[in-house]
Amino acid sequence: MLFHYHFWTPFVEETEKFYVENGFVISQRIGRYEGEFQKFNPPLKWDDFREKNILFRIIEARKGTINITFGYGKKIMFDHIGFFVSKKEQMKICENANKLNWKVDKGERRTFFATPYNFRIELQTNEDAIDSLNHQVKIQELKLATKKAGLESDLFALFGNSSYNISSEVGDVVTIKQAVIKNLVSSPIVDPNGVEITID
Question: Which InterPro entries does the UniProt record give (predicted)?
Fold first, then answer.
């Protein structure tokens, strides 16, 4: 199940506000302050820490099966997409990634693949990464821009017969052009990082 995407962005507060206004809940904020990583989780609000010059490593917004994260970057940069899979599926997908000669970084909580398309793919097996397995609110489709063709065929080789409704077009910047989200409140809208969101 496609459940996740991550951006680095100079528009951290604006990105959080955008997703909250569209029904997402902030589950965590972790940032570097005075030389160490600290939590600024809700119920803290931006008015409580806006003046503290925090470099946010991750802010997590959740709704249904969707988990969107973002952190501070000097420019907008798409980092990765994520899939929620079973442990059995994870093993097979890792084998397929090795056949593609993609670097596999298997961590304790999640696994990442470095793709030749200048973004990463995450595999997540822990149910606590999402609020609900109820598919009423979910990412139905993603349209990516990549600098080279071939993504769809590589994703088919990676995931086998599973269809995750990801399409791509060749462009100058690697990013998510469009996210189709089932049962979101309003449509179409564009987040501060240029992702056009439409509802199914």
Answer: Glyas_Bleomycin-R_OHBP_Dase
Q: What total number of domains does the chain contain?
A: 1
Listed residue (109, 133, 107, 104) closest to 121, CA to CA:
104
pLDDT, tens only, 16-39: 999 999 889 999 999 999 999 999
- Which residue type, as a one-letter code, is found at position 183? N
Q: Above 90 in pLDDT, residue 161? A: no
CATH code, 139: 3.10.180.10
Q: Does 136 have pLDDT greater than 80?
A: no
| Beta strand residue intervals within the chain, DSSP E | 2-9, 25-33, 36-39, 55-63, 66-72, 77-84, 103-106, 110-114, 120-124, 138-146, 166-170, 175-182, 189-190, 196-199
Q: Is the pLDDT of residue 184 over 90?
A: no
CA distance 172 to 162: 29
Which structural domain range is residue 90 located in? 2-199
| pLDDT of 30 | 98
CA distances from 47 to 38, 40, 69 (A): 17, 11, 21
Helix/strand/coil percent split, the chain, to 5? 20, 45, 35
